Amino acid sequence: MKLLVTGGAGYVGSVVASQLVAVDHETVVLDDLSKGHAGAVPPGARLVRGNLLDDEFLRGVLGEGFDGVLHFAALSLVGESVEEPGRYYRNNVCGTLGLLEAMRGAGVPRLVFSSTAAVYGEPRNVPITEDEPAAPTNPYGATKLAVDRMISAYATAHGLAATSLRYFNVAGASGTLGEAHEPETHLIPLVLTAAAKETPVRIFGADYPTRDGTAIRDYIHVEDLGRAHLLALEAARPGMHDIYNLGNGAGFSVRDVVEAARRVTGRNIEAIEAPRRAGDPPELVASSAKARAELGWKPEKPALEDMISDAWTWMMSHPNGYE
Ligand code: UDP
Asked: How far is the CA of 108 from the centre of ligand 1 (A)?
């Protein structure tokens, strides 16, 4: 297939782009490089630089003709979204609206969208199934939910074959591709930076109603997550919008992550207890039963230590990220 990967210079998008190239899909990456890195665009994929808010640019790109779009380009920091909701709605919602319109204009039949567990807010039931009512607690999650609903409407009205994948906590690296955010806010890269630089890491909240008082998350290897996109692309049906949660179904606390990172790195990582971070729910763990049953997806690297080990190897070989 000929596929467009928006945000394909970012962490998850670049891994998916490389997986598409590996199975001989003609792959075009669309990225404005505001967060992504040209060095993360895999060899064999073509980079087109531009922004989703530019309708004319989008019409031109989509007008080339594509069999499908994998849409990753978005702003994704919870705290930032609370402070600058307008920027998040404009980028994530208006940007996707422009993309959907350009796809419709050019007759592009398939879409796989990068959604998030943040749409569930503070879930009533854990592990979280796709039936859990969506109730985001921050603008980031709200923008992703708005896009999910927009996609459903386009599938119904215009026959789009669409899938939303709701990611839990993505971790690990894939060969030369790894996680390099600026600023970095995610736990695993921050714990590993603390290991590398012998600085302390902060534990945001030690008073959660969990087994060790710290927040519990479901970590999924970026390669496993990536493979789900290829399966979703094959399974998408015209006029249908399918939604799948993607995680391992196992919860690890912040302390579990720090302990695992100590074992992997062999370094004594100092952890300091700090106040909770605004908007962080106590526990997010996925049920991926639907993805397993309907997409035939199964994680190949479910062990937390493997994810941390791959992230550590990447960090050691890329001390300055993609610089
Ligand atoms: N966290 C932490 N210290 C850090 C960064 C994150 O204790 O320096 C916690 C955070 O509060 C959350 C968990 O680690 O409970 C995972 O955070 P991350 O930002 O990696 O992902 P999120 O679940 O927020 O998408």
From this structure: 37
- Strand bridging mode 169-171 / 201-204: unpaired
Confidence of residue 279 (pLDDT cuts 50, 70, 90): confident
Residue 50's pLDDT is what? 98
CATH class of 2-170+220-246: alpha beta
Q: Which fold has domain 187-218+249-287+300-317?
A: UDP-galactose 4-epimerase; domain 1 (3.90.25)
Look at ligand 1, atom 12, and give the residue with the nearest C-alpha.
215
List the domain boundaries for the chain: 2-170+220-246, 187-218+249-287+300-317
Sheet containing 216-217: order of strands: 252-253, 216-217, 283-284
**Is pLDDT above 90 for 251?**
yes
Q: Residue 77: CB within 6 Å of ligand 1?
A: no
Check 11, 120, 140, 208 and give the catalytic one.
Answer: 140
Identify the residue whose C-alpha is closest to ligand 1 atom 20.
Answer: 186
Amino acid at 57: F
> Before 319, cis peptide (omega within 30)?
no
- Helices first, then strands: H and E counts in the chain: 11, 14
CA pair distance 302, 288, nearest whole angstrom: 12
pLDDT at 190 over 90: yes
Ligand 1 pocket residue status of 202, Cβ below 6 Å: yes
